[in-house]
C-alpha cells in the first residue's frame, strides 16, 4: 500500500480503525482464546481456574532502537520477554494483549513489522495476540501483558530456594549484553560478534527447557532479565538464603574470546548483563538436572550472592531510572 | 519524604525498586488475587475457567493533562475506563495490572497519586492491582490491563442486537465532553460547569447498573468511550442492524443550559462525546428495563445509526491519529 505521494502511508493517513483491522487481518487465534479482538474485551481460557499474568513496557530509545533492530525484532523481543516471565512461574503462555503507542507519522510498515514479530514469537510458544489498544504518543511504546496456564500446579516463585539446592541455568548468559557492546562500538560484527548482536536483537529464551507440564520442577525459578547476579539476588532475598556461583561453571569460551577482541571482561556480561531471558532455578540435589540445564552454583544459609565465595564488585544489573541519560537502548526489561 | 535539597524526590532519586516497594506498601489484594506483586508474574483466580481481558494505554498530553487533572484523578480514570470495558462484556472486574512509564525527573508524589487513584477506583469495583511494571519514558504513559469474571455466563458482545430490541443507556452522556469544553475555555467553572469538569477528570461509569450476576441481561452491550454514535455504530456493524435514537429521550436539560451559556449545541456533546463510560445496550422489548437504565432508541433492520430517522452531520466520535495535533488532552480512550 502506497500513499498518494508515492511514499508508504503513515498511521495518521491510515487511521486507527483501519490500522487495527490491518493488524488483525488473517490472524488465527490459538485455542485458548475464546473471543478475540473486536469487542470491549477478549475472553481467554483458564483451564484450572487461575491464570499467571505478567506485564512489561518497552520504550523506544530506552529498551530498543529502531536503527539497531527491525520492528519485527522488537515485536519478537517484546513477546519473548513476557513469555519468559510466564514460563518462569512454571506456566505455559496462553495469550498476550498488546497496547501500542506511536507518533502519527510512524510509517505503517513499522506497525506491520511489530505486529508480525509479535505474532511470530507468540506462535512459537503456542499462543496468540488476543487483543490490544492503539494510541498516539510521542515515542513508540509497546506494553505487553502475557497470560499463562499453570496446569493445576502451584506457581514456582522466587521464594522456594533452600540451603543444599543446586543453582542451575538453562539458556545463554551474557550474549545480549555482548551484542549491545558490539552495537555500541559501531563496528560491523562478524562471527561470535554477529551472533551476539542477533541475540541482543531477539533473545532466545530456552522455552523447551522450561519446567512446565509433568516433568521435574525446581523449587525456585526466575528468568534472567536484569542480570544474573541481580535476578539471583531476588531469589536469595525472597527465599532468605545465600547463593554462591562457580566462576568456572559460568565460563563461556566463545564469549571470552569475543570480549578479548574488545579488551573487556566477559564476566561482566555474564554476571551483570540481562535480557538473555535464560531461566535460573534452585533444584533439589538428589535428582539429575533435566536436559538443557547446567549447574552453576549452590544455595547456602545466609544472604546475598557471591562468586567463588567472593562479592563481585562490577555492576550487578539494571534498574530503571538509575544511570546516565546517554546511551539509549541499553536498558533491559 | 523530602530530598536532600528540600524538594520532593524524583523517581530517579528514589530508584525503580524502592519506588515499586513504596507503591505496593500496605496494599491489600482482593480475594481474586492468589499471588500479588513481587515475582515474575502474578496469579489471578478465574473461577469459571475463563477470564475477560481488556487493555488501554493513556498518554500524557493526549488522554490526560496533569495541569488539568491531579495524578489521583488520572489513576482513577485509567482504572475506570478499563473496568467499564470489563463490565461491558457482562463480567465483574477481578484484578488489574499496570505498566507505567515516566521521565526520571517525575516527582515521586505524581507516582504516589497515580497509584493511590488506581487503587481507590479498583477497590470501588471490588478488585485490586495485582502487579505491574515501571520504566523510564519521555512522557507519562499508563497502560492498564483489566480482568473480569463472567460468572459462568456467555460474554455480552456487540453482535447480539436484533430488530425490535430497545436501545437503552445507563449513566450520563456528554458530561465529560462538556467538562473538556469548559476546561478549554480556561474560565473558572461553577454549577453544572464544575460538575462537568469533575466528570471529565474522573468518569463515573454506572457500575451498579452493569448487568453482572443473575439479573436481566441485554443482548448486546458496550460502554460509551468513543462517543454514543460511534459506539452504537460498532454495535450496529457487529450485529448487522440499524439503530435509531430519539432526540427527545437524549435531551439533558442541565447540559443544554450549560451549552447555551457557551453558545454551543449540547447534542454534539451527547452524541459525539466519549469518555463518560455510560453503558449502552440492546434489550428485549418485553421485559421492563432494570433500575438505572433508560430507553433512548430502537433497533431496526438495515445499517447505520440515525437520530429521529436522520443522519447526524456533526462529528460522531473519536479516532486515534486523526485530527489536529493541537488541543492535547482531548482524546478519549
From TrEMBL, chains A, B:
Name of one Pfam family that matches: AIRS
Keywords: ATP-binding, Kinase, Magnesium, Metal-binding, Nucleotide-binding, Thiamine biosynthesis, Transferase
Residue numbers binding ATP: 132-133, 158, 225
Lineage top rank: taxon: Bacteria
A GO biological process held by the record: thiamine biosynthetic process
Pathway where this protein functions: Cofactor biosynthesis; thiamine diphosphate biosynthesis; thiamine diphosphate from thiamine phosphate: step 1/1
Binding site for Mg(2+) 3: 40, 85, 223
Occurrences of domain PurM-like N-terminal (ranges): 38-148
Parts forming coiled coils: none
Binding-site residues, substrate: 63, 275, 318
Binding site for Mg(2+) 1: 55-56, 133
Binding site for Mg(2+) 4: 40, 54, 85
Function: Catalyzes the ATP-dependent phosphorylation of thiamine-monophosphate (TMP) to form thiamine-pyrophosphate (TPP), the active form of vitamin B1.
Additional detail: Reaction mechanism of ThiL seems to utilize a direct, inline transfer of the gamma-phosphate of ATP to TMP rather than a phosphorylated enzyme intermediate.
Protein name as catalogued: Thiamine-monophosphate kinase
Protein source organism: Nocardia farcinica (strain IFM 10152)
Amino acid at each position: 500500500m502506497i500513499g498518494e505521494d508515492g511514499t508508504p502511508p503513515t498511521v495518521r493517513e491510515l487511521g486507527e480503525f483501519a490500522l487495527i483491522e490491518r493488524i488483525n487481518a488473517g490472524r488465527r487465534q490459538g485455542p485458548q482464546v475464546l473471543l478475540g479482538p473486536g469487542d470491549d474485551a477478549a475472553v481467554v481460557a483458564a483451564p484450572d481456574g487461575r491464570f499467571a499474568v505478567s506485564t512489561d513496557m518497552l520504550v523506544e530509545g530506552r529498551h530498543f532502537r529502531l536503527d539497531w533492530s527491525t520492528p519485527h525484532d522488537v515485536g519478537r523481543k517484546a513477546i519473548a520477554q513476557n513469555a519468559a516471565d510466564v514460563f518462569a512461574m512454571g506456566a505455559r503462555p496462553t495469550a498476550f494483549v498488546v497496547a501500542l503507542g506511536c507518533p502519527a507519522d510512524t510509517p505503517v510498515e513499522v506497525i506491520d513489522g511489530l505486529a508480525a514479530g509479535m505474532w511470530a514469537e507468540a506462535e512459537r510458544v503456542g499462543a496468540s495476540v488476543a487483543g490490544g489498544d492503539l494510541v498516539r504518543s510521542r515515542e513508540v511504546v509497546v506494553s505487553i501483558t502475557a497470560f499463562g496456564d499453570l496446569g493445576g500446579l502451584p506457581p514456582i516463585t522466587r521464594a522456594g530456594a533452600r540451603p543444599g539446592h543446586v543453582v542451575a541455568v538453562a539458556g545463554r548468559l551474557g550474549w545480549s549484553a555482548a551484542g549491545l557492546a558490539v552495537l555500541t562500538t559501531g563496528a560491523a560484527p562478524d562471527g561470535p560478534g554477529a551472533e551476539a548482536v542477533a541475540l541482543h536483537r531477539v533473545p532466545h529464551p530456552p522455552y523447551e527447557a522450561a519446567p512446565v507440564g509433568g516433568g521435574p520442577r525446581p523449587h525456585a525459578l526466575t528468568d534472567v532479565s536484569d542480570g544474573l547476579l541481580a535476578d539471583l539476588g531476588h531469589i536469595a532475598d525472597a527465599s532468605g538464603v545465600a547463593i554462591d556461583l562457580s566462576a568456572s561453571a559460568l565460563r563461556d569460551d566463545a564469549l571470552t574470546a569475543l570480549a578479548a577482541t574488545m579488551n573487556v571482561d566477559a564476566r561482566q556480561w555474564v554476571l551483570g548483563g540481562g535480557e538473555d531471558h535464560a531461566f535460573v532455578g534452585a533444584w533439589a540435589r538428589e535428582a539429575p538436572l533435566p536436559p538443557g540445564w547446567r549447574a552453576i552454583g549452590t544455595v547456602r544459609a545466609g544472604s546475598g550472592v557471591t562468586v567463588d565465595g567472593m562479592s563481585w564488585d562490577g555492576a550487578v544489573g539494571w534498574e530503571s531510572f538509575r544511570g546516565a541519560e546517554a546511551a539509549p537502548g541499553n536498558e533491559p526489561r
